[in-house]
Amino acid sequence: MSLKSEETSTSSDVFVEIRKPQAEERPRTVTAFMMSIEPKQCSKIVKQLAQVLPLPESLAHLKRVRNPQKMKKQAESLPNNNDESEKKKPKMMLQVLIGHDKSVSLSSFLSFEPTLEEVTVPGRPPKSDAEWKEFNHIWPTTFLPLRSEEHHEKLLALNPDEIEQMTNIMEEQVRSKMQVVVVDPTDGRVISKSKDEYALQRAVGDIDNNPLATPVLLALQGVSRMERQAASKKSKDEFSKGQYLCTGYDLYAPYEPTIFEAMSCLHHRLRRLVYWDGTENPNTVWRNGLSRHYIHSLPGTNHRYRSFQYFPGSTD
């Protein structure tokens, strides 16, 4: 499953982020059970419930108590007459969420046998501020804006400057020259080109029959060559500190990397990988390292990078 990144209004070029499909989404609403209590009982009962019967993880986003204000509305709707018994407002009650199980026993710590009522509650945390307000009409719900999906998507959205830089690199360096390049995104400087590294290696040996001499790996080796040259000017102590070869760099390719190419990019600590699926990868066994196998976002790995597929504008 792919999700579109933010697009600029001045460009029809699109970068679609490659993301691993998420587990099936939890339903918006579910059925649970609650009991009504008097306000003076609330504090004691809620503390006991927290110890004996905490809310399950599936309901942890909900607050335990709701004040329905139903009694107040009923009192306001009573007919206006001289009967003092009818004018007297009923006692206000609070509603306490128990959980999904109606058969749970509460007699061990309650002095009364409660009547559990079925209630519809939000089935998952709200994704946005608007959804939180909507959920609160159903049952009081906790909302953490900085952990919400809405906030996460805003942080991940590509800004117009990023889109412009990515488009220029794809058009000027990749699509027009059919090569893989590694770029420093801080200034758009091209660090390594697969064609340059191929020429250097071919001058000293036969690499045409080397299955590991792919454009992606050659571009990464070009970064290694640059680092080695720079290391010759450093002291032993400075060199020993080092870092991963491509930390903070982006790689651009005219095809989708294979599994082992995508894994190599992971080991090199790339920041992003952007590819145009304009040429067919001849490796039919190990292709689709990103869109099918999601090597860039494997759970359990100590590094991940973002991956985008480039779709050129319709004017091209």
Can you walk through the features of this model?
The chain has two domains: 2-21 and 156-311, Cytidine Deaminase, domain 2, CATH 3.40.140; 29-123. The chain has helices spanning 39-52, 70-76, 84-87, 129-136, 149-156, 160-175, 194-202, 215-231, 236-241, 259-267; strands at 2-4, 14-18, 29-37, 65-66, 94-99, 117-122, 181-184, 189-193, 250-253, 272-275, 306-311. It is α+β, with helices and mostly antiparallel strands and 316 residues long. It is built from ten helices and eleven strands. The strands form two sheets. It has a seven-stranded mixed beta sheet. Strands 4-5-3-6 form a four-stranded antiparallel beta sheet. It is elongated, with a radius of gyration of 30 Å. The two termini are 26 Å apart. Helix 7 packs across helix 8 (215-231). Helix content is 31%, strand content 17%.
Strand and helix order: EEEHEHHEEHHHEEHHHEHEE
The description of the largest β-sheet is: 7 strands, mixed
State the end-to-end CA separation. 26 Å
User: Which regions are unreliable across 5 or more consecutive residues at pLDDT < 50?
Assistant: 1-12
- Structurally, the number of domains stands at 2
The total of helices stands at 10
Q: Output the CATH class name of the largest domain.
A: Alpha Beta
Number of strands: 11
Oligomer: single chain
CATH architecture of the largest domain: 3-Layer(aba) Sandwich
Which structural class should the secondary elements be placed in?
Answer: alpha+beta
Radius of gyration: 30 Å
Q: Which fold name is given in CATH as the topology of the largest domain?
A: Cytidine Deaminase, domain 2
**Beta-strand percentage?**
15-25%
Specify the overall morphology: elongated
Strand order of the largest sheet: 1-2-11-10-9-7-8
Specify the helix fraction band: 25-40%
Mean pLDDT: 84
